[in-house]
Amino acid sequence: MTKPNFLKNIVPATIIVAGFFCSPVNAKSIKALTSKKTAENNEDKVAEVARMTGTATKYHAIGIGIGQTFLLDDFADNGEDEITADLFYEYSASHSFDFIANFHYHKHDFRQTSATTTGLALGIKAKLFNFDAFAPFAMGGFGFYAPRMEREIDGEIKESESKLVFGYHAGLGAELDLNRKVKVGFMGSLHNPFDAKQELQPKVEGAYYKMLLTVFYKFF
Asked: Are 211 and 185 in contact (CB under 8 A)?
């Protein structure tokens, strides 16, 4: 009895397909592709969970800080401590370290004199530990400052030259993730611009520190 034609075609084809999948080389290739796809899916799921819980890294954030600026040295002699506002940019490089940039500008008046604090401070923020969504941190770095004063010299009120100088800053604080997009916190930081020499006046020297409440909005 002869076999039907379709069996004659199916049997060899089945043997070829089975041989293809069962061969060591092809089986290894299929396993590698499957493992790669599974790993990519797992990475996507982990990233999504991190974004939903607020523990993701590699994000950008902009923020604002509002609080008191306290003047020191010559700044304190010519200006008054006042409520000020700062702007912040942050990039989360890892679970422990962030890059942080702070810009501030404010004129502190006192009677006829004044002290103007202007700075772009760049630094690293290091989280000391994480407790749930709460994390205290330390930060520090360098920056560019343009301190200026209106002060009394020889019985006259004279304005100093505006010069760009280098300086350093350091601080401590803590932050709390309210959700995956918003975090709030507080920080205290000291800013110390290097002395700005003047041609016809005494050099401009001084420092100041800030106590701020902050709020940040994250971009993934």
From this structure: no
CATH 3.30.540.10 fits 60-219, yes or no: no
The confidence band for 65, taking pLDDT boundaries of 50, 70 and 90, is very high
Provide the 10 A C-beta neighbour count for residue 65. Answer: 23
64, 89 contact by CB (below 8 A): no
Show me where the domains of the chain are located: 5-53, 60-219
Short-list 105, 104, 117, 111, CA closest to 75 = 117
Residue 200 burial by Cβ neighbours in a 10 Å radius (0-12, 13-18, 19+): exposed
Report the alpha-carbon distance of residue 96 to residue 107 in Å, rounded: 35
pLDDT at 49: 46
Decide if pLDDT at 204 tops 90. Answer: yes
